[in-house]
């Protein structure tokens, strides 16, 4: 089926209708979440009790809005902290990996490349528990040997950052490597002919060329980290990132506060995605 | 210069090796070792297969494991069936601006967290939810209907959550199929079905494989969707792992569960790659 080959009218109509239904169902859950953020009720469900901004700006019980709810604000801060940490690490390591696989040929390279892809096909919860098990073993070992208590190796934000990094680094590598692949190396050679050293050539020619990919990788890593649930769940300590904090509240029963937070999340990630697209266009 | 290149290689290798060895290789080996440990006294362990025996002898564990596997495969198939026509529409029927707009629309839901998406389905499906109210309003049912907390709800959630990871690879591979090839198929007397079967689907095979692998992985390792949308009888294997680790603090058994999950997912990924003659570098990289 292709536009240049005529098809029966009914078949075309049915196909378009199918695609339309698909997109409606795709949008429906998000629209519903967003709409009930404005319901003047204690529950995010019908009946509709009227429009309110209370779940965003309300400051008194029973309607404490998202901007006045300490727990949620702190969780957003924690998530942002983790996401920045993961993104910085992932982009740095991803850049190094991209150069390694693009510029060097060495024995075992193929196997190393496959090994680098593996974190993508390991279930997130398994990544989480394996890091948890190993870090506890190291922490216990250090304690037994030297009575040295390394807080960073116990469940907490350091482990969450490492756990998320362990698979997000692969994605950052792929994003950056894809752009480096397209780079015309004669530009670098031209810079070196003009007297630049190798490092200067990379810094002044190659890195500016890679900037859109670096920003893209950073944004993707940030979003993936912010949304991550499985790996985080196994490694989290007392400071809960937003997804975990919202999950805990959702289990106890939801108020439209969660809808308001969700709507803010949607706006935030759409904004980031737009920033990324703007940079890719350049 | 030679030694400079060597130094550069070492410097670039270091972060990669640190990452893969310290965060992937050793932790997984360690998890496997812990799963082989049997507790015989306070702080005393010996090596045995006891945890794996428990896994195979306790019907609940084995049953949950198999159920999770079968439902994940089913979720992958359903996702593929729903996504394929849509991807084909985006790649081959839609033109210019509307194509990129539709593609972008597919991505939008996945910029927000899985938690929000699941929450949306809870609001839709629950007893006091939108669909239940809609059905009552239309006079189709007389009282509230509970559509949450069953396997069908889990399936809806899984398919919705992983849709993007099927659509993107499918659109990418279908876009690379020239229109002329499809036209040639019709010119040679092909029908809609035969062109689809002999030209489009074989060409889309790499996309189908990589999409299926990712969707299967995401479903198998999902914790959120089964926990929030499933009922008491619809236990997911990841929930067992979580409860052994966090609630019961039986890390040995939990590690064995984790290893079984890893084994299953690796086997299925490997099998799918073998079956279709693809490699991991080509489907993922």
TrEMBL record, chain A:
Primary location class: membrane
Pfam (any one): BPD_transp_1
Residue intervals passing through the bilayer: 12-38, 72-100, 112-136, 156-180, 200-226, 257-279
Localization of this protein: Cell membrane
Cross-referenced Gene3D superfamilies: MetI-like
Positions of the ABC transmembrane type-1 domain: 76-276
GO BP of this protein: transmembrane transport
InterPro entries in the cross-refs: Bact_Polyamine_Transport, MetI-like, MetI-like_sf
Signal peptide: none
Example of a GO cellular component annotation carried by this entry: plasma membrane
SUPFAM superfamilies: MetI-like (SSF161098)
Alphabetic keyword roster: Cell membrane, Membrane, Transmembrane, Transmembrane helix, Transport
Membrane topology, record value: Multi-pass membrane protein
Family: Belongs to the binding-protein-dependent transport system permease family. CysTW subfamily.
Protein name: Spermidine/putrescine transport system permease protein
Organism per entry: Primorskyibacter flagellatus
From TrEMBL, chain B:
Name under which the protein is recorded: Spermidine/putrescine transport system permease protein
Domain called ABC transmembrane type-1: residue spans: 65-272
One of the Pfam families matching this protein, by short name: BPD_transp_1
Residues spanning the membrane: 61-90, 102-124, 152-171, 204-224, 253-273
Entry superkingdom: Bacteria
Keyword Transport (UniProt): yes
Recorded GO CC terms: plasma membrane
Membrane topology per record: Multi-pass membrane protein
Gene Ontology biological process terms from the UniProt entry: transmembrane transport
Location in or out of the cell: Cell membrane
Organism: Primorskyibacter flagellatus
Keyword annotations from UniProtKB, A to Z: Cell membrane, Membrane, Transmembrane, Transmembrane helix, Transport
Family designation: Belongs to the binding-protein-dependent transport system permease family. CysTW subfamily.
Coiled-coil intervals, chain numbering: none
SUPFAM superfamilies listed in its UniProt record: MetI-like
């Amino acid at each position: 089926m292709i536009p240049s080959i005529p098809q029966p009218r009914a078949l075309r109509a049915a196909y378009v209708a199918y695609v339309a239904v698909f997109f409606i169902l795709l949008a429906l859950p998000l629209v519903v979440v967003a709409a009930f953020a404005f319901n003047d009720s204690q529950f995010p469900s019908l009946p509709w009790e009227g429009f309110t901004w209370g779940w965003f700006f309300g400051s008194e019980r029973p309607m404490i809005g998202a901007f006045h709810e300490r727990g949620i604000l702190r969780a957003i801060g924690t998530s942002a902290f983790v996401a920045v940490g993961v993104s910085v690490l992932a982009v740095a390591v991803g850049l190094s990996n991209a150069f390694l696989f693009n510029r060097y040929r060495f024995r075992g390279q193929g196997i190393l490349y496959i090994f680098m892809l593996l974190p993508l096909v390991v279930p997130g919860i398994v990544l989480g528990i394996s890091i948890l098990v190993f870090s506890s073993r190291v922490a216990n070992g250090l304690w037994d040997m030297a009575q040295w208590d390394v807080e960073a190796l116990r469940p907490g934000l350091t482990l969450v950052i490492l756990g998320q990094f362990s698979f997000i680094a692969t994605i950052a590598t792929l994003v950056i490597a894809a752009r480096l692949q397209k780079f015309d190396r004669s530009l670098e050679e031209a810079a070196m002919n003009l007297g630049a050293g190798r490092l200067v050539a990379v810094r002044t020619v190659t890195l500016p060329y890679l900037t859109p990919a670096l920003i893209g990788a950073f944004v993707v890593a940030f979003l993936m980290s912010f949304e991550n649930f499985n790996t985080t769940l196994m490694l989290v300590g007392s400071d809960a990132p937003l997804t975990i904090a919202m999950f805990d509240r959702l289990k106890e029963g939801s108020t439209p506060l969660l809808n308001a937070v969700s709507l803010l999340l949607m706006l935030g990630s759409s904004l980031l995605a737009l920033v990324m697209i703007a940079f890719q266009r350049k | 210069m030679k030694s400079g290149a060597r130094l550069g290689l070492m410097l670039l290798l270091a972060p990669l090796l640190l990452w893969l060895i310290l965060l992937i290789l050793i932790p997984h080996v360690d998890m496997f070792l812990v799963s082989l440990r049997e507790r015989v006294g306070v702080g005393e362990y010996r090596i045995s297969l006891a945890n794996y025996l428990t896994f195979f002898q306790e019907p609940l564990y084995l049953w949950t494991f198999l159920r999770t596997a079968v439902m994940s495969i089913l979720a992958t198939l359903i996702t593929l069936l729903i996504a394929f026509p849509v991807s084909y529409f985006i790649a081959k029927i839609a033109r210019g601006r509307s194509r990129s707009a539709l593609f972008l629309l597919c991505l939008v839901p996945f910029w927000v967290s899985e938690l929000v998406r699941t929450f949306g389905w809870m609001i839709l499906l629950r007893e006091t939810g939108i669909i239940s109210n809609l059905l009552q309003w239309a006079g189709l049912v007389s009282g509230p209907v509970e559509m949450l907390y069953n396997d069908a709800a889990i399936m809806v959630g899984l398919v919705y959550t992983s849709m993007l990871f099927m659509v993107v690879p499918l659109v990418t591979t279908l876009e690379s199929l020239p229109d002329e090839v499809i036209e040639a198929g019709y010119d040679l007397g092909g029908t809609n079905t035969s062109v689809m079967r002999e030209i489009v689907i074989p060409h889309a095979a790499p996309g189908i494989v990589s999409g299926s692998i990712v969707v299967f992985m995401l479903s198998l390792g999902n914790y959120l969707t089964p926990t929030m949308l499933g009922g008491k009888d619809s236990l997911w294997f990841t929930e067992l792992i979580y409860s052994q680790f966090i609630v019961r603090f039986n890390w040995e058994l939990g590690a064995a569960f984790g290893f079984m999950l890893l084994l299953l997912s690796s086997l299925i990924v490997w099998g799918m790659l073998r079956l279709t003659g693809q490699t991991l570098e080509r489907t993922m990289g």
